[in-house]
Design goal:
Two copies of one chain form a homodimer.
Chain A: E1 18-31, E2 34-41, E3 44-51, H1 56-63, E4 70-79, E5 92-103, H2 120-125, H3 127-130, H4 134-156, E6 160-161, E7 179-181, E8 189-191, H5 197-205, E9 210-218, E10 230-239, H6 243-262, E11 272-274, H7 275-282, E12 296-297, H8 299-302, H9 308-311, E13 315-321, H10 329-340, E14 350-354, E15 360-362, H11 370-380, E16 387-393, H12 395-412, E17 423-427, E18 432-435, E19 440-443, H13 458-461, E20 470-475, E21 478-485, H14 490-499, H15 504-517, E22 525-531, H16 532-539, H17 570-576, E23 578-580
Parallel strand pairs in A: 3-5, 6-9, 11-17
Antiparallel strand pairs in A: 1-2, 1-4, 2-3, 4-5, 7-8, 9-10, 10-22, 12-13, 13-16, 14-15, 14-16, 17-20, 18-19, 20-21, 21-22
């Protein structure tokens, strides 16, 4: 036994006990004839006291301890002369009688403190040291709690945890697969799953009724800040359900998680909105509804005043930014430059200041008089002191640009509070989206999503207008998860593959097992998957999923700590029957 | 809502209620003017009743339902005229008023019954139908329960579930890696983890103190019946512990699992044995101690009687097989042939019948008289009516062969009872094993295992004799799991790599991150991993792990249901920068 107690455990009630502790030296200080060492572990910090006069050898030994040395001490729990109310163990200290050095430590390349002096790259390289820091440990503990409470909720609702395979078959649909060459089957490859989609559907065909899994998924995509090549899904599926059953079940899960993990209660049902509404009002299928600034259609009000830009635009959209009428010219220029960057791509930005004295001042005063501007203010709900931004152009693009601007302004004005949580169900996603580049339809969710029965009639005539029984749960501008009611009929599934450009032979070759399964008694079913990384980050009030992953990869898909990926030797390649170019 | 109740739910108390049920047609039968349909789901079976006279349309419709059709019915819960005490719902039936066909079904290629008529290959191809069978569902439910109870136990003992990466670095040590070509880093590869070993050690360096994960691991080995290319581990690690702490913690886990999942209580501590003892007494490091037949060293007793085979043998080992003295010549010949097969490789088998009349009859009567044979019987504990088997030759080989024979006889005599569970800790494994083929040492557990401190002195002089702080938990002849106290000192870890034939440069290149981590304050630590597949199979009283995996692969590493692995297209290969030979 290396220790009798942890470093977060001892209280006044333990005074007088002989204890053994172990941990890391957080820091030490010499005060007159005393040396005090803060001993740290996952559970807390305990103060060790060494008296130079009473035991000089031991005290001199303690004075040689560096930061992050690993030690074991034996000693007596005594009352602390100057108590530390900030520390749960602040009422006591250990009068040390024995000190064992378990392992020395070099000076860490950055300080192991809540606010460290280490840059991102250095901390990534020494991730095992960064993980010692309290804020990082807290994030991973939050993740552990969320996963465990997810399991408890789903188990109590009759879901079975069933493991699906990681070495599966590559399919052309969706994102790019990571593949794994097979040594036993030369020239052939497994693929790592982008999700266990077809397997969970087969489990429904098998009668498992309610399935879940917290499971790693893989996508070989070019990475952005909030993407990782491997990520974790809370993956669920239910049989004999309609959309409403699924929304209720998983709204219950999110409420349970916030309640148990964060102590936050959501009153009433989560609000709902169709995809069409969300796009019209927020220009996003995952709107942040912690703040207002809803889109206003200014097309009619702005037309016919000889402002060609608006007259020729498909869409003219405004938002009222509260209390921003006194933004300076410099601020407005900066915002204009920002929105004109290629990443966002607006051609220009029109603003209207709704001055506190009731007058208006805009960047288009040449075309619009006070009365016109006043009508815009009324339509967009702008009050004196607010600022109206107007963007125009192609409908889809303008919505996207205005969404970016709205989010930026929300952030800038402090309206996106990290401790406020606003869920929103977004419903009735389109079944298909048109891919200009390849001249064909893509499945918006995935090829297994069921069209809404009332739109069946449009499948042949106007497939682009067919809505799906597909839903997302958005929160604070983030997509926490989504799902759909699935097709469970072979003929409809075959028609869907046809719409997506598969020949019958290709459909059979890739998904024959699923099509066949549907002929042996497939129940109606549907499901949903949450992105665990993103859910936990959102619950933690953060944008960055990387902080909530123990060993994340960088934007080039590299683990810089272990230096992976790396070259492998010729023998391995030969055994696998492959060559690198 | 597709259903108001499941098919396992209705009881006499529900009589008089209108209900909606959904499920699969298990079977139907016509009895006079009635048609009865057994409706099945995961939860049970409910009998549906249709009356030809009262509602002929509906009843005729019901008579058209085939096996495995998916239907929904509405109706009244009524008392059953002939109750079925074998069925939890056997007191009631549903007087159906509405019948909806949700999906038709082709006749399944094998019967969906507890005893199916489907062969192994056919069932593998239609795994989604095999998974409908009750015994198969039970196995996966057992697995779900074991995983969940494992989490509960570990959580209540302060373990944190931390996910480690799946895309890691290939290392030459251990089994063959599966590798994943990186598109973003052309010519480089990730490897899939054989275990999260180094990551869990880094988490200990990070101060996580207690870690666990139920995690998929991958080994590209030639497959045997009880091996899968992907398998699941209950992976655990603890800091500031000695071997005794770990044994206690995980003995507690196994007791908790048997108690909660199977209702079986183990009294007292699990027995323990050193590796050396296990090999001497059972010829195995995972002995089945449900039955006796311990090895007896007959070398001294059998020497000097002119039987050259024994005289020249390094080892002469006997076992007493209870009650087998009347085995026929044919039976003994069959056993002799069996043990001489190349897979086992004995050169011959000597037997001694301890007849019920007190006489002895052996296959070596020419060399050994009654007195000699009697001395063998006494030494091996054979009584009248028993049979003694004797094998001889090289010590290691003879032990292995005798282990096979012992297990076969145990099975044959019904001594390996599927509902009896006998755990055994095997301790003090050797640190290294000599690899004749490559003329070097291999780590018996893995390169991170700590030698026993009392054997430190042998590392330079006789490395083959160094024992490790390594332990396995065996049960019923199966290795459930194993682990070790790890090295946490950089110098010792470097020395270990040297013993294993790494140059310092190779060690640094492959495991530099771990060696470096040890310099920044690594605590003493150790851990253990259980094979979940094998644990669950053992708890289920079965030898075959494949039955406990939802979608297993066959002996060629193929998933015959989805047909993976498979060829991928040229575009994919090109993007990855690889070519197949």
């Amino acid at each position: 036994m290396y220790r009798s107690h942890t470093n977060g455990e001892l209280r006044a009630a333990h005074i007088g006990q002989e204890v053994t502790l172990a941990g890391w030296v957080q820091k030490s200080r010499d005060l007159g004839g005393m040396t005090f060492v803060d001993l740290r572990d996952r559970y807390g910090i305990t103060q060790l006291a060494f008296n130079l006069e009473e035991n000089s050898d031991l005290c001199l030994q303690a004075r040689k301890l560096g930061r992050e040395f690993v030690i074991q001490v034996k000693g007596l729990v005594i009352e602390r002369s100057s108590k530390n109310a900030n520390l749960p163990t602040g009422e006591i200290e250990i009068k040390v009688s024995e000190l064992n050095l378990l392992n020395a430590a070099k000076t860490p390349p950055f300080t192991i403190e809540d606010d460290t002096d280490g840059g991102e790259e250095l901390r990534a390289q020494y991730r095992y040291l960064d993980l010692r820091r309290n804020p990082v440990q807290q994030k991973l503990r939050l993740r552990n709690q969320v996963a465990l409470e997810t399991r408890k909720y789903l188990d109590s609702n009759g879901f079975l945890d069933v493991e699906t395979p990681y070495l599966i078959k590559s399919t052309p649909e969706g994102a790019r697969d990571f593949v794994v060459p097979s040594r036993m089957n030369p020239g052939e490859f497994y693929a790592l799953p982008q999700s266990p989609q077809t397997f969970k559907q087969l489990l429904m065909v098998s009668g498992f009724d309610r399935y879940y899994q917290i499971v790693k998924c893989f996508r070989d995509e070019d990475l952005r800040a909030d993407r990782q090549p491997e990520f974790t899904q809370i993956d669920c599926e239910m049989a004999f359900v309609e959309q409403e059953d699924i929304l209720n079940m998983f709204e219950g899960l999110i409420k349970h998680l916030f309640q148990t993990v964060r102590g936050i209660t959501f009153e009433g049902n989560f609000p709902r909105m169709t995809y069409a509404e969300a796009m019209a009002i927020y220009g996003s299928d995952k709107p942040d509804i912690r703040f207002d600034m809803k889109f206003t259609d200014l097309k009619a009000l702005s037309s016919g005043k000889n402002f060609q830009v608006f007259d020729n635009a498909e869409a003219v959209i405004g938002i009222a930014v509260p209390g921003a009428s006194e933004y300076t010219r410099k601020q407005l220029d900066e915002i204009t430059d920002w929105i004109k960057r290629p990443q966002i791509g607006a051609l220009g930005l029109v603003y209207v200041k709704c001055n506190l004295d009731g007058t208006f001042k805009s960047s288009v005063d040449k075309f619009y008089d006070e009365a016109a501007l006043k009508s815009w203010a009324e339509a967009s709900g702008a009050k004196a002191g607010d600022l109206i931004f107007v963007l125009s152009g192609d409908l889809d693009k303008t919505r996207k640009q205005m969404n970016e601007l709205r989010l930026r302004m929300g952030t800038e004005l402090g309206l996106r509070k990290p401790d406020e949580f606003k869920p929103l169900w977004v419903l009735d996603f389109p079944l298909l989206e048109w891919d200009e580049e390849h001249g064909r339809y893509h499945a918006m969710h995935h090829p297994f999503t069921s069209p809404k029965p009332e739109d069946f009639g449009l499948i042949d005539s106007e497939p682009g207008k067919v809505r799906a029984n597909a839903y997302d749960l958005a929160m604070n501008g983030v997509e926490l998860g989504g799902g759909s009611i699935r097709i469970h009929d072979r003929a409809l599934q075959s028609r869907m593959f046809e719409l997506l450009g598969f020949t019958p032979e290709q459909a059979q070759e890739q998904f024959g097992f699923l099509l066949n399964a549907f002929e042996y008694g497939a129940p109606p079913h549907g499901g949903l998957a949450f992105g665990l990384d993103r859910l936990v980050a959102t619950m933690g009030g953060s944008d960055s999923i990387r902080d909530y992953i123990a060993f994340p990869k960088n934007n080039s898909g590299r683990d810089v700590m272990i230096d992976a990926p790396s070259q492998i030797d010729e023998v391995q390649l030969k055994e696998l029957g492959i060559k690198t170019n």
